[in-house]
């Protein structure tokens, strides 16, 4: 093999090495871009999820709260007007299968501030007594639940505020002693600290 042939072979080899290096560089750049794009999508989804889960509140407009009569898990019927003269918090939630919803009520029961303030808490779900009772037993909840066919949840504008379009979300409505709706708060995060709930309620009475 002549000297010129050897030089040409070395040059071809060097060119092949450089081509392979460029290919590797381009591959690494594509991977970085794909990774950055994936990270951007993830961040966008997290931000959207946080935005969706943000609590929303309003003062209720000061109008009369829609009255209702519903059966309860104890077999009795309960009307909102039965509690006239005392402030009431209506607790709409997804009900059976939603552990955080039932845990919320269990923690409310443990807080003596509601009784001290004379506030009655009425949990409302779109379940039968048999469907919700297992959850109440699991979390040790003793407060009777009111069983809605969707009429009351719709009247208070709570449907579709959580994870399911046909069910109430995780929300509270404050009705004062005169039957006037003072405040409403929806919490897609499925939790509101009972101390915060009590503070929100008492500050508006």
Please give a handful of descriptors for the protein shown.
single chain; 205 residues; alpha/beta; Glutaredoxin; 2 domains; 6-stranded mixed sheet; two-stranded antiparallel ribbon; 6 helices; 8 strands
What would you say the CATH architecture of the largest domain is? 3-Layer(aba) Sandwich
Order of helices and strands: HEEEEHHEHEHEEH
Shape: rod-shaped
| CATH topology group of the largest domain | Glutaredoxin
CATH class of the largest domain: Alpha Beta
How does this model look, in words?
By secondary structure, the chain is of the alpha/beta class. It folds into two domains: 52 residues; 147 residues, Glutaredoxin (3-Layer(aba) Sandwich). Strands 1-8-7-4-5-6 form a six-stranded mixed sheet, with no helix packed on it. A two-stranded antiparallel sheet has the order 2-3. The protein is rod-shaped, with a radius of gyration of 30 Å. About 7% of the residues have low confidence.
Give a quick precis of the structure.
This protein has helices at residues 3-52, 99-110, 113-116, 129-139, 151-155, 194-202; strands spanning 56-58, 69-71, 77-79, 88-92, 120-125, 146-147, 171-175, 181-186. With 205 residues, the protein is an alpha/beta fold.
């Amino acid at each position: 093999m002549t000297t010129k042939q050897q030089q040409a072979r070395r040059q071809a080899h060097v060119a092949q090495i450089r081509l392979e290096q460029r290919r590797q560089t381009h591959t690494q750049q594509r991977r970085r871009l794909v990774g950055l794009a994936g990270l951007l999508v993830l961040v966008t989804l997290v931000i959207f999820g946080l935005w969706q889960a943000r609590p929303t509140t309003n003062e209720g407009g000061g109008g009369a709260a829609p009255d209702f009569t519903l059966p309860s898990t104890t077999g009795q019927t309960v009307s909102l007007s039965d509690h006239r003269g005392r402030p009431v918090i209506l607790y709409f939630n997804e009900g059976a299968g939603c552990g955080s919803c039932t845990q919320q009520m269990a923690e409310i029961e443990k807080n003596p501030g509601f009784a001290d303030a004379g506030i009655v808490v009425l949990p409302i779900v779109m379940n039968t007594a048999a469907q919700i009772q297992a959850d109440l037993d699991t979390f040790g909840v003793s407060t009777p639940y009111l069983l809605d066919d969707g009429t009351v949840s719709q009247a208070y504008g709570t449907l579709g505020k959580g994870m399911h379009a046909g069910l109430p979300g995780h929300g509270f409505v404050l009705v004062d002693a005169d039957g006037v709706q003072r405040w409403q708060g929806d919490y897609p995060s499925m939790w509101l600290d009972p101390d915060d709930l009590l503070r929100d309620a008492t500050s508006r009475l």
